[in-house]
Amino acid sequence: MEVIYQPVWSYCSSDSCSPSHRCQTGFTEKGYRCVAKDSAGENDNTTECPSSWNPFEGSCYKLYTEGKDWITSKAFCENNDAQLVKIESAEENDFIKSQYLTGNVVYWIGLTDAENEGTWKWSDGSALTGYINWHFNEPNDMGGEDCVQIVLGTHSKIYNAGWNDATCSISLGFICEK
Q: Where in this chain does the record put each C-type lectin domain (predicted)?
């Protein structure tokens, strides 16, 4: 798989990559990357991932179950050349659910409104646009909740890989993406 990294101040736009590549944002100090598409023009699904990471649509994912607060989880992912997971489609959310969500579980994802209440951004600084999967009555900022978790189980009502805003200091497992 061919990958071309761009500087951190660069973000994806309609002309970021050549037509034979697709743009992915949020790769820490490397900015965005252009990932080669296969000969049919589809995303390359033959992603080579490090051992214990799972591939999906050109990215690699890993679950860490040891509890950390959101800020520490974000830093941990960045120190491993990754980011807290940025979920951009129903297919990606379903992949996360099928790979990591079993039983009653809650993990950090890379979404926060800590800078400006109600303005949700991914940990790479990009705005939340397009796909969303908030659980019923979320986000609600109950008690100053500025970070987002993905939830499966019966914590009050049935959560089906829905997103919930939570207090950033809670110690949870987390999912990194690179």
A: 56-177
* Residue 68: strand pairing partners: 172
Q: Which residue type, as a one-letter code, is found at position 106?
A: V
SS3 for 28? helix
Q: Which amino acid is at 122?
A: W
Segment 60-82 mean pLDDT: 97
Question: What are φ and ψ of residue 33, in 5° steps?
Answer: -135, 150
Distances (CA, A) of 48 to 44, 60, 68: 10, 8, 28
pLDDT band at 83 (very low <50, low <70, confident <90, very high): very high
Contact 106, 135 (CB under 8 A): no
Q: Which amino acid is at 12?
A: C
Residues 6+ apart with CB under 8 A from 85: 61, 96, 109, 110, 175, 176, 177
pTM of the predicted structure, to 2 decimals: 0.72
CA-angle at 112, arms to 92 and 123, nearest 5°: 65
Nearest-angstrom CA–CA distance, 33 and 153 = 35
